[in-house]
Amino acid sequence: xxxxxxTPPQPAAVEPPPAPPEPRTLPRWxxxxxxxxxxxxxxxxxxxxxxxxxxxxxxxDLHNEFTEFRDAVLASRDTNPIIQFTYQLGSWFxxxxxxxxxxxxxxxxxxxxPQIGWIGVTAVATWVGLAVAGWRxxxxxxxxxxxxxxxxxxxxxIDLLIVTFVAVSVAILVGMPLAVLLGTTNRAGASVINTVLxxxxxxxxxxxxxxxxxxxxxxxSAAVVCTLIYALPPLIRIAGHGxxxxxxxxxxxTDSAGQTSWQRLRKVQLPMARKTIVVGVNQTIMAALxxxxxxxxxxxxxxxxxxxxALSKNDVGxxxxxGMLIVVMAVMLDRSTTAASEASEKAARGRxxxxxxxxxxxxxxxxxxxxxxxxxxxxxxxxxPENDLGSxxxxxxxxxxxxxxxxxxxxxxxxxxxxxxxxLNPMQDLLAESPWYVSAAGILALAFVFGGLRALVPAVIxxxxxxFFDLWHDAMITLNMTLVGTVLVMVLALIFGVLMARSRYVxxxxxxxxxxxxxxxxxxxxIPILALFGPSRFTAILAGVIYAAxxxxxxxxxxxxxxxxxxxxxxxxxxxxxxxxxxKVQLPMARGSLVLAANQGLLYMLSMAVIGGLVGAGAxxxxxxxxxxxxxxxxxxxxxxITIVLIGIMIDRVARAAADKESVxxxxxxxxxxxxxxx
Amino acid sequence: MRNTRxxxxxxxxxxxxxxxxxxxxxxGGGSIDEETQANEEQAGAAGGECGDLNMAVNPWVGYExxxxxxxxxxxxxxxxxxxYKDLKEDVSWQxxxxxxxxxxxxxxxxxxxxxxxxxxxxxxGSATDFGExxxxxxxGWYVPGWxxxxxxxxxxxxxxxxxxxxxxxxxxxxxxxxxxxxxxxVQFDEAIIDNLGLDFKVVFSGGEAATITAFEQAQxxxxxxxxxxxxxxxIHAEVPMEQVELPPYEDGCQDDPAKVACDYPxxxxxxxxxTEWAESDSTAVGLVQNFEWTNDDQNQVAAYITSDKMSPExxxxxxxxxxxxxxxxxxx
Amino acid sequence: xxxxxxxxxxxSASTADAALSVRHLWKIFxxxxxxxxxxxxxxxxxxxxxxxxxxxxxxxxVSFEVAPGEVFVVMGLSGSGKSTLxxxxxxxxEPTAGEIVIEGDxxxxxxxxxxxxxxxxxxxxxxxxxxxxxxxxxxxxxAYGLEIRGVPKKERRAxxxxxxxxxxxxxxxxxxxxxxxxxxxQRVGLARALAGDPSLLLFDEPFSALDPxxxxxxxxxxxxxHHELGKTMVFITHDLAEALKLGxxxxxxxxxxxxxxxxxxxxxxxxxDDYVRDFTSEVPRSHVLTLKWVMxxxxxxxxxGPVLQADQIVKDAARIVLDHQGPCxxxxxDKLVGVVDDEDILRVVVAEEEVKP
Lengths: 679, 332, 357
Fold this sequence. Notes:
The complex is a heterotrimer. By secondary structure, chain A is an all-alpha fold. Chain A has helices spanning 28-46, 61-75, 81-104, 118-133, 135-150, 154-184, 187-202, 205-216, 220-244, 248-255, 261-272, 274-290, 292-296, 304-311, 316-348, 354-375, 379-382, 389-408, 413-433, 436-468, 472-502, 504-519, 522-533, 537-561, 565-573, 578-589, 591-607, 609-614, 619-629, 634-662. Among the domains of chain C are: 2-14 and 67-95 and 109-122 and 198-283, P-loop containing nucleotide triphosphate hydrolases (Rossmann fold, 3-Layer(aba) Sandwich); 286-355, Alpha-Beta Complex (CBS domain Like). In chain C, 38% of the residues lie in helices and 21% in strands. Chain C contains 14 helices and 13 strands.
């Protein structure tokens, strides 16, 4: 794509067959080995010098300047017009959330119960599910809502639903215009927007939690805003991509009819990108739910609260139950939005008998009205009756975890030692104990080897930034943990991804587990891992792997599964073994997905750096937690957050450049639009 | 027991109600209208002298115990509307100025925050010091009970180096590991280790949960562990721990963070409140001002919450009913 | 050669009443394309120019005119710039230089709104890959052009229904494009172009993506529509047979430049260079050439026997000539222009047999 204008391709007819890769003296991996070799030699003479290590409570002038800036903003909060404005905004969010809460989740004084009780809410939600997506989804919705009450977290669940609803609504309101901008602007504009989105997506939430409190206050408003910030980028990115990838031929054909650009957007681009936009909304909802626990740190209403409070009592079971309800909610919303989109398409195509459907819906509305009335009349139908199910499950989980740790505690130690002494420590010695300029040179050289000049330029900028923010040593430790974690993630992704792609049963079995792994708050499984492996970098890496692996596994499975069956058939016809089929056909042809999986795995690992800080991994994660916990260290925490963003962008850009450089195949859909016009 | 049976009865009632619904017949049962009326009357009678009480709940159980005991007294006996807000310390203090937080019931010492928000310390005056709450924070170096039993000499810091190699872990780079704690807490361990010439390296657990899990596991599996810990903390009731003796605290020995070579002082825990709220005529102001109890009291309520798995409200109510005389003292 | 130029002069319309007139049209892709035209670089071959400046020539100094009601075919292999050329006509691709006049209006100088007006009312296009809107029914795809003009729904649907009937899609109004075969989809494309009742229809390789039988149907459809509606058409193709079948005149392009313009028999009878000769070599000449191209001077032959017209196709005349002993007369109107005998006919037919595998 970059070279679209600079070097217009030859027309196909006169195009020579793809040139063989330039003859080079050494392949890339050999160059990389040379770089690492030189690095090790230099390291052995210089280790321990100029590592720029900073003690846990030390900070530099730069960090202090950040803290002072924050203090100045804080001091001006009564007069600062921006804060006045954001406070106003925040109070709107709060009143929207609170109004909805009084309607359906908390007592609306002087009523002892909300305006609509649980059975009414469940009935309405089920009816909506029936109306937009059919009876299967209606059953799913009914069961999900019922489980919220049954496990004892009715109000918290509904609160989370409300916060998610408000945040996602605002996200769509703000995000769609930006998505259109991203989808229609030129390449330079798009890359600027993408970089900003990268920053928002890699910036650890803890860093902006305190400023949000400063600008929007505590509680529902802060919860909505931090959810919004985290949930907005996927929508803009995916919807923008959808708009951008609307078939150029259709656009040209309709342009030739003389449409204005507004007509093009409204009648062609948006309708044709509809499916992708729905995926964007769907991902936004998932992102919003994954913020539930973080939002609880600022008293956001929802299921995050009980998770955190159970955590403070080391009550794994107590955190597990609300954690699983978040998963239930995620699955429910995910399946409903997807099914709703399919159903509306079907309806638009006249494949549904509208009259029959209206009759069904009208008939179904009768019990809904009865349920509404009943939920306003009978206490037990307004307030979910208490029961012991939730707490007995929590007890069961606690017993299981205790048993598990009893049996496996210590047995697992060898694995931790293997990874730590075999991989983690040697790499960390090299990265973090070299003088900073040696590490910097090594990183830049590797970036150049793998991605050429296109990787070198962003790498130089990011390395300079990391150095500038005075947390070099911590950054290297975090980088190292991220790399080791990504290796583990990719091992899992390859094994399970290929298995899933090759066997439908494995796929059916594993997919729900992966869905759960992706949406369950990491805090839930933190304690058992801690008990098994103690506070250590390995614990942090393991938590990160659990978080990052599902995405990578899914991507690899989809990629391998997407390899054309004719190619596989052709290879089988030559008598290839299963192993050859996987290694010589399926994996190479799914290369794009593998690169994407590695890339996403890296970024997910990086986003867990903060969680790592909570379980003894130290480094940047600790700095961020420290900045969030002690106000005089906020500047250091903010700098650590920026450093994480820089590491993320650096890895991403190098990986992308490396993938592009290696790829010789021409993706026809990626051809510049005018190329097909040249006949 | 009574509780359980009650729940069952309510459960049966729900089933009955659903059944009624299915039959679409009119049944009697708990009337929401009656309760609404009762609430209205009660609100009228109470006259709203207390109003809202915004209670910050910082994320550790001891704090939760204090906050809910004060909160439940305010709610049950003064008729306040209590809003519990789960917040970290920093965020709580920021809330004083905006009216979102009225009370921080247990403060372990945040000189930097006081400097920013307390008028006497040069701050903007949004926070007011309401004095001590009776709890005493003890910070120190702890080892699990089994270790103290088997190697009693370990409780003297002079002998620590002999055992340093036993404390080595994958994280400690060849030295003994000293487990630091949650970043929120006051910690001088790196300096103490340096200045006492100990062969240890501080590894930060990063959070209270991580530290507690580490001590639990160490006691269970007889692992070697030494780390930063504190009282009051509910876990002392479950996991035996012993404090290692450091050179005793003297005034001024922790003034220069780099030169600290002594034990932590005992910290009287304090109450801070929003100035605006303190100056209001809420009847709860007096309650918070008078609130004072002991470490044992707090540990008792914390144990109700953690060991007996009671909700904080129930735990507080139980303690209140057992100790009404103490509570009466606060209400004078 | 002289015949070609003569014929050219008589058949091409003069600028004033031409439906479409293109003069010195250039399109160069790449940075700094503007500055190349007029310099010696412009004379470089495509490969040389790319080597030197990184720019690629799409259309190189093309001029032609199309008379009202004419079917004008632009032919070339892929990469010859023919699709770029047709897109320049309504500025779907901005030309780098040159002038385009459609019905007296200068397209190259038109403002955006004038351009939209042109696209809405005067020139419609049919595309190789149809470019239909997958989320709309056939009827609404056809009505799209009317919709964006602001025609009320009822009216535009009525109009669209007429056109749907015209292209033989009755009964499929409420289908979605993905429910139709390729040929039917292209009928929708055709209907969409016709719905706005434009005077000029542009076809960009409309039938290349269809299989041969369907392609033949669609070609006949175009011929039928041309007879019925008499629209001016510019038709892009890489298929010589299609060009010969449809075109009143054919423009052959190579590397962005014109190689030859002429009627089908001119192209076959007098190829401008080896390039044209090479790819016309497999065409059954007897199917294209008229007697004019095979007759000889009547030097001393007996002027009796059947009378044939000069523009009669060889294939059609062959039976008469072969049945008759001796030469037949070839007339242009009332004037005798030559005679044709068995040998003249066989030369064409036998040559064909030899070429065939």
